[in-house]
């Protein structure tokens, strides 16, 4: 019925309009709405949005500050009940949500369904956690929090950040990505319908300038951010410059590797690599970017991978047969093509198959054989998988070179040797290690998804830790004595 609802919505929907200045038009700088287009069919306008003005942001922050005491005094059980209500509304309106995920964000239907479910899970999860952590007196929240979310999970991360901040008692100023304001607006409406007061959750569409204004506003007491590294660094600087210094909880990108050893099952490696690299057309921070193969099995795995890539269907995400949808925008596609060209110019071999449709921002998945991890220009946010051969005896050196790239988000290990799995797990500094499985699709709840170093402010960006970071009371985990000094890396088996 969800798919039927999707097609119904697609046929019947009129382009929704985002009336951005929810707090009244700015007489000094009237907001000009611009059209939003389906990334799979760039001639199909799906709605309009206007960025929030400086005055909108200032007024919203002021309102949030005024609302802070009332929201903090709302019993935890009532806040949690509202989040459970929101989950029920997300389920009830899944047809409209799926339609927007496909048409605004270019998600395939399976990815869109998974995202609705993730948003529902986030609401229930933070409701349950808040009830369990704070059954008695509510803790002291930080105060108004800005939640700045990305276009690649425009529903799940948008709702997840809001749910965590609200559960902890903070009013939220939610800024969706400039590419995906419509789905965020619908989610905001459902959260309001669930009982969350309008002053406790305000919607501020716009681009980086809105995020910058929010981060600089003195009423803001913390920022939850998922997105690019440069944006995280800019927000960090703005927060650090403020008085008082306010916390940033950020998750950015990664140059995520899968380390395969000689004992791994080739077919499983191919299946897991394919999903990890090309699901969502590679537009996930968790996606596999660099497949590291031992010399002795590399040829066989690369051949299987090429055949499997030939089977992938690139096309309109509204079609059930499509495995990969489009990139989010013309600019995103150009960036990936530019990175591929730079690798080709360095003499790296690129295989691309199958052909992608011409209209829309589609890209055929690409396999690039590189000779050193340092060839990668950082994160390439698209359907590009680099493959690197390494000598078995040089595995420690490989791990050191991966580490030196500076990122620490996800790492896959493919091996049937338990001691090697254990050793590699101990040696790497990443937020999420996946063993003998794909390395995307973090599960809401027990997996506190987050990145280290260039990938974010740490794995405590999720799970119950996130709630403790959103209140002023001491995090009970922080009271546990620090671990003993790190022991030197054990030798590889
Ligand atoms: C992101 O892509 O910005 O585990 C983070 C996963 C997703 C990652 C979301 N939950 O693949």
Main attributes?
493 residues; alpha/beta; seven-stranded mixed sheet; 14 strands; 14% strand; globular
Distance between the termini: 52 Å
Q: Bin the strand percentage.
A: 5-15%
**pLDDT under 50 segments (min length 5)?**
1-28, 479-493
Strand order of the largest sheet: 10-11-12-9-8-13-14
Number of helices: 15
- Order of helices and strands, N to C? HEEHHHHEHEHEHEHEEHEHHEEEHEHEH
* DSSP summary, beta strand count: 14
* Average pLDDT taken over every residue: 90
Bound ligand species: 2-aminohexanedioic acid
Radius of gyration: 23 Å
Structural class: alpha/beta
Largest sheet: 7 strands, mixed
- Shape descriptor reads globular
> Share of helix among residues?
40-55%
Function: Oxidizes proline to glutamate for use as a carbon and nitrogen source.
Domain Aldehyde dehydrogenase: 36-466
Family: In the N-terminal section; belongs to the proline dehydrogenase family.
Protein name: Bifunctional protein PutA
């Amino acid at each position: 019925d969800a798919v039927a609802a999707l097609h119904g919505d697609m046929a019947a929907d009129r382009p929704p309009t985002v009336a951005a200045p929810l707090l009244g038009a700015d007489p000094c700088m009237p907001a000009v709405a611009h059209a939003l287009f389906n990334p799979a069919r760039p001639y199909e306008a799906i709605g309009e949005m206007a960025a929030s003005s400086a005055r909108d942001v200032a007024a919203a922050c002021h309102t949030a500050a005024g609302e802070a005491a009332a929201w903090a005094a709302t019993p935890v059980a009532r806040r949690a009940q509202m989040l459970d209500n929101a989950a029920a509304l997300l389920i009830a309106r899944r047809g409209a949500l799926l339609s927007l995920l496909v048409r605004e964000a270019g998600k395939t239907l399976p990815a869109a369904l998974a995202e609705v479910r993730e948003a529902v899970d986030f609401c229930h999860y933070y409701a349950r956690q808040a009830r369990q952590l704070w059954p008695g007196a509510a803790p002291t929240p930080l105060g108004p929090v800005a939640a700045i979310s990305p276009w690649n999970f425009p529903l799940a991360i948008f709702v997840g950040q809001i749910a965590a901040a609200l559960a902890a008692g903070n009013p939220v100023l939610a800024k969706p990505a400039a590419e995906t304001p419509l789905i965020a607006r619908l989610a905001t409406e459902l959260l309001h319908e669930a009982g969350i007061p309008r002053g406790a959750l305000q919607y501020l569409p716009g681009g980086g300038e809105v995020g910058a204004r929010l981060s600089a506003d003195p009423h803001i007491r913390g920022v939850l951010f998922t997105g690019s590294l440069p944006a995280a660094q800019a927000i960090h600087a703005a927060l650090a410059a403020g008085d008082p210094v306010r916390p940033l909880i950020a998750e950015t990108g990664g140059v995520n590797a899968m380390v395969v050893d000689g004992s791994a099952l080739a077919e499983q490696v191919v299946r897991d690599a394919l999903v990890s690299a090309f699901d969502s057309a590679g537009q996930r921070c968790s996606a596999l970017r660099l497949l590291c193969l031992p010399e002795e099995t590399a040829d066989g795995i690369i051949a299987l991978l090429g055949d499997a890539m030939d089977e992938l269907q690139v096309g309109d995400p509204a079609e059930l047969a499509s495995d990969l949808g489009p990139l989010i925008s013309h600019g995103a596609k150009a960036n990936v093509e530019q990175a591929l060209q730079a690798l080709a110019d360095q003499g790296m071999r690129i295989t691309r198959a199958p052909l992608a449709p011409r209209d829309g921002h589609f890209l055929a998945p690409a396999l690039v054989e590189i000779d050193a991890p340092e060839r990668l220009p950082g994160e390439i946010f698209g359907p590009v998988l680099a493959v690197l051969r390494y000598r078995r005896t040089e595995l420690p050196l490989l791990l050191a070179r991966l580490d030196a790239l500076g990122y620490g988000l996800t790492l896959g290990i493919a091996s049937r040797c338990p001691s090697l799995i254990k050793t590699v797990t101990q040696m790497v500094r990443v937020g999420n290690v996946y063993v003998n499985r794909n390395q995307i699709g973090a599960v809401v709840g027990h997996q506190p998804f987050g990145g280290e170093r260039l990938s974010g402010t740490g794995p405590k960006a999720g799970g119950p830790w996130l709630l403790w970071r959103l209140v002023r009371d001491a995090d009970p985990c922080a009271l546990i004595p620090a671990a003993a000094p790190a022991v030197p890396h054990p030798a590889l088996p």
